[in-house]
Design brief:
Length: 605
């Protein structure tokens, strides 16, 4: 990683400006910090540069801790919004300024300056002064000056904000070309979503000092996690609907969704995002309802926006649906939907204000719950106390909701207890309904019951056998196949919120000495790595050969991992078959010192 931020925080006048930000930026990456005004973007950039002090946390550049090192010793190039050129110096002298300070010989300065001016498209402008240049040309000079000292990292703070749209577009293209040519790690701050989408390898969305989400532009736009990101990145129709076992009911429309979002937790209220371009406008007879139609609405607004036509429809609010965005009028029984369609569709099916049309959902995305919900075991035993302490600390760190299993549900005497009196029985009978993770103590003295009981719980399980610190290094054990992807996705969410590193491990049979890793295994692990890294988790992959359980234990010990993540299928509806067999059962019989996260998925059905 070129840039590694760990739990950065900053307060000003009693107000939190940057709130516990952890982020890794890869070498050669163009990373965009995006957020509204006042979200902390520029402050975070200045903390990386050393221009703002760090109250807590650390900044590392290329593995070197620079938290308390002066800006001039960090080897960083910085481009400001308002150019900050020396008005009394020529273009040549502005570009050479840092080189003169470092006493670089004149021939090298001239060579470097001429090369950079050619790179930014200003060859031959050496003797002009800033007042003789346009705004776009001045910003090109500022970029050349920032690159003159051959920095390890380039930081740009809304550099094109004061320029007109055409110049901004040209400069974005130039910056992207230069950044790729130099393979220079770059952090770009903006509040312009179009600018972020056009430039970024990855985007980090900041809001009130919190880094809400990190991902590549397409992933963040199509599959955001939080309501803020879903409506800040482009326009979105955000509705609250009801989840079923494998789908979401949006009024009269039932939409299939990824099973990991709703498995074992239905029915519950969920937020559904429908992008304007995923609303199809259709005409039909009044008694003919198109498939997936939210309802028949009246066109309230129509706007020409170049290649697209934007419309706003007013529809009756379906039963059990609540509108979040666009914000509904208080007390109104209707809601509005934004729709966007290409001009060829507008010509084929013209609509004017006052016309009616069906709003049909092509595609929708269910947001992950904003916060995790933990059900935490409580009770008098030492292991139960360790589970409760761990669960409560985890909930505090994640800002998650948590509830305790009542003492009456907790085993008070292991020898006298029955399955009905154990917390496992309470969870199995529905005590964890609506929760994401059950945090339970894993006690060898009740192991037989534990394994049988755990196998029937449909929720993710976090098993604690002794007091443990909050995880900072996750070991995710996967076999190469679809079920492992669900394990990685859930573990990624947890790792990102904790600011933890992650290692994805697969174990192959012991082969002949020097036998290469099969191509399909490398390809699968590469997918796992990118699923983690693209969302901001510092990740690596590992292949070991030998007996699976022995190699997992060896990796735990050698890698210093403090949370083991394994997967297990959810039992089929109404079934009571034992799903914890073989490897997982053996693991639970002799659990490691660290907690175990068992990710339940639908792959076994």
């Amino acid at each position: 990683m070129s840039i590694q931020l760990h739990q950065l925080s900053k307060c000003l006048d009693g107000r939190t400006i940057i709130d516990d930000v952890t982020l890794g930026i890869a070498t050669g990456e163009l990373f965009v910090l995006l957020g509204p005004s006042g979200s902390g973007k520029s402050t975070l950039l200045r903390m990386i540069a050393g221009l703002s002090e760090v109250d807590a946390g650390s900044v590392a550049l290329h593995g070197r801790d620079v938290t308390h090192i002066s800006p001039k010793d960090r080897n960083i190039g910085f481009v400001f919004q308002h150019y900050a050129l020396f008005r009394n110096l020529s273009v040549a002298d502005n570009v050479e300024f840092a080189l003169r300070v470092r006493r670089v010989p004149k021939p090298e300065r001239v060579r470097r300056r001429e090369g950079l001016l050619a790179l930014v498209g200003l060859a031959g402008f050496d003797h002009r002064y800033p007042h003789q240049l346009s705004g776009g040309q001045q910003q090109r000079v500022a970029l050349a000056r920032a690159l003159a000292s051959d920095p390890l990292v380039l930081l740009l703070d809304e550099p094109f904000g004061a320029l007109d749209a055409k110049i901004r577009h040209e400069l974005r293209q130039s910056l992207r070309r230069i950044q790729r040519e130099l393979k220079l790690t770059t952090v770009f701050v903006t509040h312009d979503q179009e600018e972020a989408f056009e430039l970024a390898d990855r985007i980090g969305v900041l809001e009130r000092g919190r880094l809400l989400e990190v991902g590549d532009p397409q992933e963040l736009y199509l599959h955001p996690r939080s309501p803020f990101v879903s409506t800040f990145l482009g326009v979105g129709n955000l509705l609250v609907a009801e989840s079923l076992a494998r789908s979401v009911r949006l009024g009269p429309v039932e939409l299939p969704v990824s099973s990991e979002l709703v498995a074992g937790r239905a029915p519950r209220r969920v937020q559904v995002l429908v992008r304007p371009e995923d609303i199809e406008l259709a005409t039909a007879e009044p008694d003919v309802v198109p498939a997936r139609a939210l309802g028949r609405g009246v066109v309230e607004e129509r706007a020409f926006v170049g290649a697209w036509e934007r419309l706003r429809l007013r529809l009756p609010l379906p039963q059990h649906v609540r509108a979040v965005e666009p914000r509904p009028v208080f007390g109104d029984a209707c809601f509005t939907v934004e729709a966007l369609r290409p001009q060829h569709e507008a010509h084929r099916f013209p609509l004017a204000v006052g016309d009616t049309a069906w709003a049909v959902v092509r595609r929708a995305h269910v947001l992950a719950p904003a916060t995790l919900r933990l059900l935490v075991e409580s009770g008098p035993t030492a292991v139960a106390s360790a589970a409760r302490d761990f669960g409560e600390r985890l909930a505090t760190r994640l800002g998650a909701y948590h509830a305790l299993l009542g003492e009456r549900e907790t085993r008070t005497n292991a020898r006298e207890a029955s399955p009905e009196s154990s917390p496992l029985g309470a969870v199995t009978e529905g005590g964890a309904e609506g929760f994401d993770i059950a945090v339970l103590g894993l006690e060898p003295m009740r192991l037989g019951q534990t394994v049988d009981g755990l196998a029937l719980i449909r929720h993710h399980l976090l098993l604690v056998s002794q007091p443990a610190p909050l995880p900072s290094r996750l070991l995710i054990c996967v076999a190469c196949g679809e079920p492992g992807k669900a394990d990685v996705r859930f573990a990624e969410r947890l790792a990102w919120q904790l600011g933890a590193r992650a290692t994805v491990l697969t174990v192959l049979p012991e082969g002949r000495g020097g036998e290469p890793t099969p191509a399909y295994v490398e390809q699968y692990l590469n997918l796992c790595y990118h699923a983690l890294a693209s969302r901001g988790v510092v990740a690596q992959t590992q292949v070991r050969r030998g007996a699976v359980l022995a190699e997992i234990r060896a990796e735990l010990a050698e890698g210093g991992h403090d949370l083991l993540v394994v997967g297990a299928p959810v039992p089929s509806a109404g079934g009571r078959q034992k799903t914890f067999v073989g490897l997982l059962e053996q693991l639970l019989q002799q659990p490691p010192a660290c907690p175990i996260l068992i990710v339940r998925n639908q792959a076994g059905n």
